[in-house]
């Protein structure tokens, strides 16, 4: 019956609303925690800057090449919500990273390298000057590649070998912020999903009420039910 | 093709022609493809658009990616950074399929509010965070405004 349909949809709407409110409350709490952790991180960074020097903790210290130490997994669930979770991948073995690396263009003139003074004449005439440069390049490239294996190094090392404890605390705070960001992203999608469900539920309820009132006006609904329908509307 | 798939085809050549012409046939008939499957996005990055301290902090946390082959996943916004550059970077992050979350200072988000409000997809998720000079204001957050905005006078009739 239409009246039971309206009552059922009202109950469902109430449940969805309660869940939505709970999610909003949880989101606000996590936001507050996130904000305080970020502030803590900035404070620690400022302390590190005070002890190390203003320019020692800045954009100038960023590495020229970086690999992410943390990534996020996004799983789309059947109800349309997305679940985010952070993951810290293990360091790649050196062989794999060597394969992945492409040769890097060396900056700076190659010709100014050390020259062989006692080179035999035959070799000089046969070899191209380019080949000369490339053969000199070969020993230079290997040590560069070895350095590149450490792309996944701790970002703390950008700021020096011995860093103050405050910078390590800043790193710890921001790591916690990153974990919390994934949780907040999940909650945000859940909140928006719940909002959409509530909207759809309200539309269905209004449609059911309209059907009920129109059938009550036409006289197809028994008198008792007509009274209930009018009370609901 | 699996036997189950074979049985769904009739013997007519038209079905086979359609199957061969289907560009997604390797996906459709893959045993891993089914409608309610969990779409696991593996190893997406976290992008940051923020001031120097924000970016430095998150890079310390280990989210940074920068190499010659790919564009960086962060943008340090300084006093002379134009709004166009910020908007273009934000849109480029949205277009990339390897970014799962975008963290952006709220005062920077205010500059490109129209672009953030236009983003309706779940991935990448956009999180507004405070900055040193501008504390977080929930009333300006796009997500919370969308969530709270559903309560209009009509809903309570």
Automatic annotation (TrEMBL), chain A:
Please give the chief subcellular localization of this protein: cytoplasm
Q: What keywords would UniProt list here?
A: Coiled coil, Cytoplasmic vesicle, Endoplasmic reticulum, Endosome, Lysosome
Supply one GO BP term: vacuolar proton-transporting V-type ATPase complex assembly
Q: Basic and acidic residues bias located where? A: 89-105, 123-143
Query: Which residues does the annotated region (Disordered) include?
Result: 82-148
**GO cellular component entries:** COPI-coated vesicle; endoplasmic reticulum-Golgi intermediate compartment; endosome; lysosome
Per UniProt, what is one GO molecular function of this protein?
A: unfolded protein binding
Q: Which residues form a coiled coil?
A: 10-37
State its location(s). Cytoplasmic vesicle, COPI-coated vesicle; Endoplasmic reticulum-Golgi intermediate compartment; Endosome; Lysosome
**Where does the source fall among the domains of life?**
Eukaryota
Complex formation? Accessory component of the multisubunit proton-transporting vacuolar (V)-ATPase protein pump.
The protein's name in its UniProt record: Vacuolar ATPase assembly protein VMA22
TrEMBL record, chain B:
Query: Where do the coiled-coil regions begin and end?
Result: none
Any one Gene Ontology MF annotation carried by this entry is:
proton-transporting ATPase activity, rotational mechanism
Q: Name one GO cellular component term.
A: proton-transporting V-type ATPase, V1 domain
Q: Does the keyword Ribonucleoprotein apply?
A: no
Alphabetical keyword list: Hydrogen ion transport, Ion transport, Transport
Q: Which Gene3D superfamilies match?
A: ATPase, V1 complex, subunit F
Identify the NCBIfam families for this entry: V_ATP_synt_F
How is this protein named in the record?
Answer: V-type proton ATPase subunit F
